[in-house]
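User: Quick sanity check before I run a bigger batch. Here is a single chain. Can you write out its predicted 3D structure?
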Amino acid sequence: MRLADVVAMSGGVAGEDVLENVLTADGVAALSEALTFMREAAGEGPDGYLSVEVVDSNSMTCRARRIDDGDQVIIIPLGVLARARALARRLLQHLALDEVVRVVGNPLDSRPGWEVLPGLTPVYSEYEGAEESQWDALKSFDGETGASDLRDSEAHDVMSMCLFYLVVHEMVHINKRHDKLLALADAGSPFVPHDVLPHLRRGLEVHADVMAAVALTKSLITEFPLGAKGRSNGVSANRLDTLFERSSFAACLLFSMYDTYRATVFDYDRGNYPHPLVRYELTHSVTLAVINDTAPSLMGTVTKATEAGWLRCNQAISNLELACAQGRYGSPSHGQIFRCIPVTALKYGTPVLSMQTRIADEYRLSLLTEELLRRMNAAMPARG
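Assistant: Done. Predicted structure follows.
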């Protein structure tokens, strides 16, 4: 399949008119710089050229695809970036308010009948309907957020950070040749032990999370501060502590968007992805490990900054949830607003022992996947 066909099937390239309608001119400028930066970073991969396209789709699903000429493309739906920007603007507005409340929950506790409040569906649901009506709903949600140059600048940084993570996660799938290992597994290759087969897809997703955290942490140190290498990157912040704080805020926000139904940790024991809180904690641990190994003098700064980003995002969501409890985001079909709070599993309190065990298990799965990939690539080197 040709590149143009893949892009067309995914919604088509998000043109300037679509982008400005959803993101505003300032948002488009930030996204354009961030996208250019990531395209330069992608470039030539192990099996061919790797391109990055933002498509006109309100989906939350990012994909990496190989195309007919041997090259690859990463598809990022505009929907996930537009939601990240709109949600960041709203959370930062709630954070600026005086009202402070903390809403937590138990990651082992199920909440039957949970659903997204009507006022949050533009950012927290993949609801059915025409693309145009979905964009209109998101634009209306964003328009209700008060304007602030300072908050908008930070929200655009958060959007760019989300783009970086999503693209690098997909780059890992391509550059580490995850699809090749899956093909071998499907063909019954001895490269993949029989007992690993049920967990392989999950292992590849966790591996992509881990390696993306490694790559982004190194990039935040070397590529971003003070306009390193003289390149624009779509991020206004240039202080190291601010960069890591906003990166942590973005990770918390992004994983919250990918968990809108508050499933328990047990519900995530099967499937391709771990519990969102596990994903956040794992990538955060990897970030600190990279700093400790490569720039130990920055450990105190980065630890403090990443914790601040996590706490700010959580406090903002708490304030959002207070607004939910006050009925400012509508009522659910069952009429019981309390059953819609917390709005995301990222708001759980201190992880219990079960969560720590799961984090360690997922990391071990990532290491096992890395070893399988190493053996495969040694036996079947990429072209060039």
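DSSP finds twelve helices and four strands in the chain.

User: Great, the batch can go ahead then.
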